[in-house]
């Protein structure tokens, strides 16, 4: 069944780009350019996802989100804005947005965030045991086994692996890893994430010939869903 | 001794004290001048009155000589011996012959220090020690006549006058000192209000204004300073607005550029059989990402600076926790480079934006890791005391070139010998912007070998 997404964006090029990206993920999309119109539509029917800009004619993007929440509409909202300072993001999340992405963004980053939003919105409880290929992650016990062999990980390495596993088979940008594992919303100059991932990779791959964590275009990582 | 000398104690540097000193000095000089003038006037007037009497007396005696000759004169003088004048003063006379022989009078001989030719004279009688003033009259063809008046009364009056003047002058001096101190303090309190406002603005509180007003010089100073601060606030809002505008207007085209490049890459990869990546496209995407990163960092700095002094959105943040988070993030990188992080903190709660403070400390540690020699130790120390929180990041690296400390906080400034280390020279400017936004003071200090970054913050009220 196709999912429905509402795009509220007054820049035609960005709107079309977002529509293309979502279309490739089996979304049927509708685009409006006015904030007030966006609020009316989002309140009128149940979309699976709303993507909104902030500086909009009619009504500001965050006002749209806030009023939606006040109306009891829980549709996941991804705010996409040129106002990308840490404070702006925190402000956006405070006012009811589920995720906040600063323009300009990469395709992979956008898709990773959409995926994270949909995953969180899904009604079924998060599984206690996650299985990705030959990797078994027990969330409560915080243990990891690969092909039955126990892999000892530090708490942050465990969080890294868990985040990659939640998006198994998909690209996870560094910014999302920083946000999920370290609660950071900025990109450190030094490749701190790469070093942590390479340590995780070393532990997971030790004694195996295939590597399960792949670098994706130098901007992020992917946990292979199946054995390569 | 250095030219500057030891600093003056605070009291001596106080303008109030200087003002009081100047007032006291001027008052004292003016009053003393006035007292001297009064004394002189009174003295002259008294003397003139005495001399007038004496002159009349002498003229009378000369008349006696003209009518009765020397015997009549000596008789008249002998008669008057021991007499007191109409003004109650003892009067003395002496008549000597042209040859200098005493003919009659109160003295045995012509006083040594009185020239026989003088008209108005002052002298002291050696036998009694009394001071006199008088007139000398040389009667043509007759004896010399000296008529004098003792000055005891005159001098007593002068002493009494000095005593009478001293009390009111002293009282007036004390009153004027007190008034000067009160007026000085009141005036300076108004200047101090302007100073306090300037300090608050310096510390980042752009909303601070000078209280009060009025139509005098201080009132106008307050009005002008406030108008200046309003103007700065308007300019700051303008910068803020402009940066938002730039963010929106420029990042959108950048976003389009990037999405078109990515679409091109997707389409190239989708060509059946090709399956190969185009390195130029990957490079172009990487370059655009770099451009966007530099641009975002610039905007972040500008907007953080513009938010300086804005207390909204500030919450209690323990810098020790932030340091722990950052150390956790950088531990692995540091270890890979053979550098160790030595963290020593005490709970250091400030009012701030946690994300910004995390970014500030991360930037400092990031720099330290980049510039630390292999095997080096980076100290990250937070201490609290004396109403101040000190956060110190010390790296034992090559340090900064001479005189680079001030420039290090400017955008795009990098020392010349760091070519191999990646970066755009925007790390420290952001650190400073965050410090400024939180009213913190930041300093770079040499720590041979290496460098110490010291951040001083006010602790949050418990």
If you consult CATH, what is the topology of the largest domain in chain A?
Rossmann fold
End-to-end C-alpha gap of chain A = 29 Å
- pLDDT averaged residue by residue of chain A: 86
Relevant CATH superfamily of the largest domain in chain A: Response regulator
Uncertain regions spanning at least 5 consecutive residues of chain B? 1-9
Radius of gyration of chain B: 47 Å
CATH class category of the largest domain in chain B = Alpha Beta
Q: Are there runs of chain A of 5+ residues with pLDDT below 50, and where?
A: none
**Helicity of chain B, as a percent range:** 40-55%
Mean pLDDT over all positions of chain B = 81
The total of beta strands of chain B comes to 12
| Strand neighbour order, sheet with most strands of chain B | 2-1-5-4-3
Order of helices and strands of chain B: HHEEEEEHHHEHEEHEEHEE
Largest sheet of chain A: 5 strands, parallel
CATH superfamily of the largest domain in chain B: Histidine kinase-like ATPase, C-terminal domain
Task: Kindly list the characteristics that best describe this protein.
heterodimer; A: 228 residues; alpha/beta; Rossmann fold; Arc Repressor Mutant, subunit A; 2 domains; five-stranded parallel β-sheet; four-stranded antiparallel β-sheet; 40% helix; B: 462 residues; alpha+beta; Beta-Lactamase; Heat Shock Protein 90; 8 helices; rod-shaped
What do these coordinates show?
The complex is a heterodimer of chains A (228) and B (462). Chain A is an alpha/beta fold and 228 residues long. Chain A folds into 2 domains: 3-121, 3-Layer(aba) Sandwich (Rossmann fold), CATH 3.40.50; 129-223, Winged helix-like DNA-binding domain superfamily/Winged helix DNA-binding domain (Arc Repressor Mutant, subunit A), CATH 1.10.10.10. Chain A is built from 8 helices and 12 strands. Chain A has helices at 12-23, 35-44, 61-70, 86-94, 107-121, 155-166, 174-182, 192-205; strands at residues 3-8, 27-32, 49-52, 77-81, 99-102, 129-132, 135-138, 143-146, 149-151, 172-173, 213-216, 220-223. In chain A, strands 2-1-3-4-5 form a 5-stranded parallel sheet, with helices on both faces. In chain A, helix 2 (35-44) runs parallel beside helix 3 (61-70). Chain B is α+β, with helices and mostly antiparallel strands. Chain B folds into 3 domains: 16-157, Beta-Lactamase, CATH 3.30.450; 238-306; 315-457, Heat Shock Protein 90, CATH 3.30.565. Chain B contains 8 helices and 12 strands. In chain B, the strands form 3 sheets. A 5-stranded antiparallel sheet of chain B has the order 2-1-5-4-3. Chain B has a 5-stranded mixed sheet with strand order 7-9-10-12-11. Chain B has a two-stranded antiparallel ribbon with strand order 6-8. Chain B starts with 9 loop residues before the first helix and ends in a 5-residue tail after the last strand. Mean pLDDT of chain B is 81; it is low at 1-9. The chains are: A alpha/beta (228), B alpha+beta (462). The A-B interface holds A 11, 13-14, 17, 20, 55, 82-87, 90-91, 102-107, 156, 182-192, 195-196, 199, 217-219 and B 244, 247-248, 251-252, 254-259, 262-263, 266, 282, 285-286, 288-289, 292-293, 296, 299-300, 303-304, 307, 313, 325, 328-330, 332-333, 336, 353, 355-356, 358-359, 362-363, 366, 369-370, 422-423, 427.
